[in-house]
Design a protein that fits this description.
6 helices; 6-stranded antiparallel sheet; alpha+beta; globular; 4-stranded antiparallel sheet
């Protein structure tokens, strides 16, 4: 874990322990969320912690460290705002369009949570500072005019699309799984792994023999992100049938 990030987590716990009923981080990416989950599980003591991004299964989330009496009310206390953007359905906008417009305002990525885009509408979670900047400065995303409101609840389904991949591997070693997922040889997969270009559940792994388990998420630089969705037994030659899903 990055020392600066660890220091920030430690400071959150210290501030909460000294009297702040709840302390919140900025938006964390998926690796930071995983690191925060591990660190807080070992270091929060009697304090509670929660990662929340505005809806279930959000990728970018804020960390809260808080006193136990806040309980279930902590979710309502997160310093984030849901912005809703309306535009013509025939104007097809993407996540990249919105993020690019926000970055052009010199906003840091840490003030912006998930951005969910559908036909004619998009919603994003942002910090209070981010919300003020966006609502006062944005009237177009790219060349498309948009209307913005902060009064609507989150209502878009963030339906992740997948491409199914199936095949057989000699073992559940990482080099075998990466080879199948990326469509490359085990030798080339080994080079990627040793070059720190492969992650399991958001953490880099450099051992080619690391075991991959059902449910693990693999990130392979240059090839994308995959989840090992199923293990379906052996072939007559002893190879293992597996199913994977590629995030698209």
């Amino acid at each position: 874990m990055d020392k600066l990030f660890e220091a920030r987590l430690s400071d959150m716990v210290t501030r909460c322990g000294r009297g702040d009923s709840a302390v919140f981080s900025h938006f964390l990416d998926e690796r930071q969320c995983a690191e925060a989950q591990q660190w807080c599980g070992k270091n929060c003591g009697a304090l509670l912690f929660k990662l929340w991004g505005g809806y279930e299964d959000a990728r970018r989330r804020m960390l809260a460290v808080y006193e136990d009496y806040l309980g279930d009310y902590i979710t309502e206390s997160y310093p984030m705002i849901c912005l809703t953007f309306s535009f013509r359905e025939e104007d097809k906008l993407t996540h990249r369009d919105f993020l690019g417009s926000f970055m052009a305002l010199q906003l840091k990525r840490e003030v912006i949570g998930d951005i969910v885009v559908s036909d004619g509408v998009a919603q994003t979670f942002v910090t209070e500072v981010g919300a003020r900047t966006i609502t006062s400065s944005v009237s177009k995303i790219g060349r498309v005019g948009v209307k913005i409101t902060d009064s609507e609840p989150f209502r878009l389904e963030n339906a992740q699309k997948f491409q199914d991949i199936g095949g057989t591997v000699a073992s559940m070693r990482l080099d075998c799984i990466v080879g199948l997922a990326a469509g490359i040889s085990r030798e080339k997969a080994s080079v990627l792994i040793r070059s720190e270009k492969v992650e399991i559940n958001h953490f880099p792994v450099t051992s080619v023999s690391a075991e991959v388990r059902e449910g693990d998420v693999l990130s392979i630089r240059g090839s994308g992100r995959f989840i090992l969705s199923g293990i379906d037994g052996l072939t007559k030659k002893g190879r293992i049938h597996i199913r994977m899903r590629k995030y698209i």
